[in-house]
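User: Predict the complex with shikimate-3-phosphate.
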Amino acid sequence: MNDLEMYREQLALCDDKIIDALAERNSIIEKIMAYKETYGMPILQPAQEEKQQKRLDEKLENNKYREEIQNVFRSIQKNSKRIQARKLFSYNIVLIGFMGAGKSTISDYLSTVFDMKLVEMDQEISEREQMSIPDIFATYGEEYFRNLETNLLRELQTGKNCIISCGGGVALREQNVVEMKKNGRVVLLTASPETIYERVKDSNDRPLLKDNNNVEYIAELMEKRREKYEAAADVVIRTDNKTVLQICEELITKLTELDK
Ligand code: S3P
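Assistant: Here is the predicted structure with shikimate-3-phosphate placed in the model:
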């Protein structure tokens, strides 16, 4: 055997070790999840993740291939997140609720921690139409926008394990709720009119609040919509005075309880 053949053989053995190590690592991830579930522990532990990252950084500090190895670890970590997400949710997570209830913030966080695909409906519609939401309302009217929402939602039902952040009006059409439930569990985020006002008072991208950005109007519109939101929801989460992490933990707990 010449040297080249020998190196190739060594490389193949190295790959075998990596495969075994990765398979072992993934099964440990599953054990950690099962342990957390058995003892009712929070699934998301950002402090622990930071600790793990710090350990890795230290270990690689003087390594010649630090950057390349860090790169591989980023992939490994993403895969772990995906394993967790697939184990926890075999469906789409659909977030509904009033403007400013926190749908975008929560879906952003969830999609990062579980490496799940995220569709922000308003953003997707706006990109496809190449127009802001207020411009779509002003140019074509609300009905046109609502039809775009229904079409997009229908299209999204072909996939699974995705986070869908709905615009505040999506759950008001019965037909949309039927679509959401085909492959998804529906999470309603709520907040008091005062909290909502604090969150949306400086925003200009909500045509429905353009001339009515005040607590009274928000309370009135919210009350009009309440029944429909509640009827669509599989789980409800109040967001007032809670951190993003607390809301996400509550969401995970409530969704997993649905399957018990
Ligand atoms: C709407 C909510 C908005 C956007 C549009 C209409 C509504 O989305 O879809 O302005 O009817 O409540 P956000 O809830 O993300 O603000």
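The pocket of shikimate-3-phosphate is lined by residues 99, 103, 122, 133, 167-169, 206-208 (CB under 6 Å).
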